[in-house]
Amino acid sequence: MINKPLVLTYLYLLIYILLSSGVILYNKWVLSQKYFNFPFPITLTMIHMGFSGVVAFFLVRVFKVVTPVKMTFEIYATCVVPISAFFASSLWFGNTAYLHISVAFIQMLKALMPVATFLMAVLCGTDKARLDVFANMLLVSVGVVISSYGEINFNVVGTLYQVTGIFAEALRLVLTQVLLQKKGLSLNPITSLYYIAPCSFVFLFVPWFLLEKPVMEVSQIQFNFWIFFSNALCALALNFSIFLVIGRTGAVTIRVAGVLKDWILIALSTVIFPESTITGLNIIGYAIALCGVVMYNYIKVKDVKASQLPPESIPDRISKDWKLEKKSSDIYVPNNNDNNGGNISALELNLDEEAPLIASSRLSHIGRTQLSK
């Protein structure tokens, strides 16, 4: 007999993988001078933020699908503004990297995301320096260095843009956890876009006015409404697909899907963009980095599961490990006592750097019990 919830879960995972890969490849195609030739990454990001903000406004204020949270000026200034600033920065730098380096190499560099997140968390005091995690981070870093050494079309500017975007995103994740939890604020997907997207748009306006507006005035650019509309729509759909995936799967399943998506994206990018050449050293380096990422994911998933156990069950944790491993990949079904999608923090789970807004807002609220530790 067909298990309909299981089929639906895998369907959501497939949609997430397709949309995630599609948005990245679409952005590369739009920005690349060899294809659509719209080399204005800040403008493209502003289109995404503006479109998401408008959709969220209609859903909140016109159709009243959700009720906005009680947002005071203090909370907006101290929480939403800094989070939006780093969110805008991460998207700006990440999209700019497409102008200089290949999609495949960008995905390999994104293996540094756990390293950046761990370092930022330690610096901000939300995580402790641990030898086992540090060893994994060292392995990831070595793998990325080897992969970079094997990159035929290595570009320093593009690499710096991508790495800077990764660290900006890592700092945003840490700030999301610290600031939103401190205020006891939990945003759903629509209210996340409603508050953060317009603020990110404003932050992007400054570099756009200084860097891209003068160039756009003198250059012959093509603007196709349907291209940009469909691109923004795909980005918005990706955010909601991430929300659906989080609501129906466990941490292990999501992480495996993310790794699978990366490999599919690397393979697809070499087919769609023939100039993207992958060398044997690229693959070896990325495989080494991926081993470190997988080990890191395993450690963090076990930490999350251990923190969710009631105090009386902790002595029996070792004997029940095999049961917990099974449960971690089971279908997640929300109940009345758990309407936040589980206690997985934004620092424990990085889904997608292309559309991380909804995912991190949903994952940022891990509960006051963990804050008191």
TrEMBL record:
Domain Sugar phosphate transporter: 11-297
Keyword Membrane assigned: yes
Transmembrane domains' residue ranges: 7-26, 38-63, 75-93, 99-124, 131-149, 161-180, 192-211, 223-245, 252-273, 279-299
Source species, domain of life: Eukaryota
Membrane topology: Multi-pass membrane protein
Compartments, as annotated in UniProt: Membrane
Major localisation: membrane
Pfam families in UniProt: TPT
Keyword annotations of the record: Membrane, Transmembrane, Transmembrane helix
Protein name per the record: Sugar phosphate transporter domain-containing protein
Taxonomic path: Eukaryota, Viridiplantae, Streptophyta, Embryophyta, Tracheophyta
